[in-house]
Structures are given as C-alpha cells and as structure tokens.
Amino acid sequence: MSLPEQKPDLEDSINVSEAHGRLDREAAACVREKRIAANGSEPISLWVIALCGVVVLIAGGILGGAGDWFNYKATFREGYVRSAAPGAEETGPQPKEALAAYMAKGAKIYSAKCNGCHGADAKGDGANYPSLVGSKWVTGSTEKLSMIILNGLQGPTSTGKAYGAGMPAQAAGLTPEDLAGVITYIRNNYGNSTGDVVTAEMAKAALDISAARTKVGQQTTGEELSANHEKELAGTPLDPKTMVDPVTLAPATAAKP
Ligand code: HEC
After folding, report:
1. Does the beta carbon of 135 sit less than 6 angstroms from any atom of ligand 1?
2. CATH architecture of the region 96-244
3. 251: which DSSP letter?
4. Which residues make Cβ contacts (< 8 Å) with residue 207, sequence separation at least 6?
5. 187 alpha carbon to ligand 1 midpoint, in Å?
6. Lowest-confidence range among 96-110, 215-229, 239-253?
7. Separation of CA 166 and ligand 1 centre (Å)
8. Pocket test residue of 102, 110, 113, 117 for ligand 1, highest count of atoms within 8 A of CB
9. Which of 21, 44, 152, 173 could form a cystine bridge with 219, CB 3.0-4.6 A?
10. pLDDT by residue (tens digit) across 164-203?
11. pLDDT band, residue 122 (cuts 50/70/90)
12. Domain limits, the chain
C-alpha cells in the first residue's frame, strides 16, 4: 500500500540528530547557569569584602588614634620597674651540700679510675684486688689513704694480705678536687661512713707531701705508710652541710639579696 501524495509524512521532517544536538546544548547551558541561592545566602561580590577591609582599616586608625590605644604614656606607667623573673639572676648550677657535691665528684673519679680493679661495689674480687668496704686504711688517716691512691701500694694491705704486683699509682691527671672527691666518696660509700668531707685544700697538701717523698715514683708500702703518713692532712674537713659550688667545690658565696 502506498501513502497518499497530499499527506506528507510529518515524521520525516524531524531531523533526529539535529534534535539530539539541541538537547545537548540546552542541557549544557543549564549546567552553566548560576544556581539560585536561597534568600540571604547569595555569595557577596569580592569588591564588597575588599571595601569592608578598607573601612575597618580606616576606622581602626581613627578610633585607635583618637582613643588611647597606641598612646605610650597610657600603656606604660611612669617609674614602673618589672621585678626580675625568678631564677633570672642565677647563672650556673645551684650550690649543693658539701658532702653531696664531693661524693658526686668522687663517684665519677671512682668509676673512671678505681672501678676496673676494686669493682662497682668496691668489694674487690678477693683474689687480685682487695675490698675497700670496711678497710681500716680507707676509713683511717687521710694522709695515708691519699698516699696509697697517689702512689699505689705494694706488699701487705690493711688485712696483712698482699695482692700480686700491688696497686699502680693513680696520680696521673688527678686534680686536688678529684682526689678530695674520691677520698670522700670511698670513706662515705659502700657501707663506709666517716661522715667527713676531705676538702680540695687538704688534697692539695697530699699532692705536695706525695711529691716530696724520698721514694718518689715508687709504690708506697705499709711500712712507709706507718712510718711517715699515719696523719691527718692539714686543713679542716668541711662541715658536710656547707653549701659549695658543685663544679669547683669552692664554698658558695653568700646568695645575693
Ligand atoms: C690496676 C688495679 C687497681 C686500680 C686501678 C686501683 N687499685 Fe687500689 N688496689 C689494687 C691492689 C692490687 C691493691 C692491693 C695492693 C697490695 O697488695 O699491696 C689495692 C689496694 C688499695 C687500697 C688499700 C686497701 C687496704 O685495705 O689495704 C686502697 C685504699 C685502694 N686500693 C684504693 C684505690 C682507689 C681509691 C683507686 C682509684 C683511685 C684504686 N685503688 C685503683 C689495685 C688497684
């Protein structure tokens, strides 16, 4: 069957691809369109924000200048002096009680110079190194003890027992403070407690006595010790509670008012 000539086929006049293209373009245009925000929440233009900034700056300048915001005299009171912050004056370490300060020094020297032989607990090993715990020569006269440390020891010890080749001299590199510290340390530690502080000044005297020995450079012996060194070192032991500088061990100067 053929269609009547006078009735054109309307469907034929629709160009399908053209119609689809139009749909696409219109949809894209809709997407580009600004969304309509609810009343009051529309975005503000940038220039309004910039203008506000300028207004705030100018207003701040006027108010701050006329009001006393930047007035030096209004902010800083005449004659006002800040009190020093606590601790600001104190430079360096705080003074310590003499016994604690000398012991701390001595502990360092002991672990550097004596620990290797006499042991961390100073008990020695019973065979090659004697114990310093309860030793009469440790807690006895300070000059004798100093001579042992400075020159070493050969032959019988305080218990009568002799240990091998003896103890080598420990004077190398030992300052009076070091010597005073280690003496105070072994006399007041490991169960020993003479309670006295042998001062750096007393240790200095020991260094002089040691240098003046007739057998200088040789280990001392029990014989020499009892003949010449059964004495207390010159100088007075410090009261253990005296405050001293923990580094120099010098008595601390009176605190500033
Ligand atoms: C290389 C090992 C060695 C070192 C390091 C050493 N000693 Fe000794 N010490 C000995 C020996 C060994 C004896 C025993 C000596 C003897 O038989 O005459 C001894 C003996 C002593 C005695 C005598 C003890 C007594 O009761 O008769 C004292 C005190 C002493 N030492 C203190 C010290 C101190 C303090 C130091 C560190 C500054 C030190 N020693 C470092 C090996 C050592």
Report:
1. yes
2. Orthogonal Bundle (1.10)
3. B
4. 150, 171, 176, 179
5. 14
6. 239-253
7. 7
8. 117
9. 152
10. 999 999 999 999 999 999 999 999 999 999 999 999 999 9
11. very high
12. 96-244
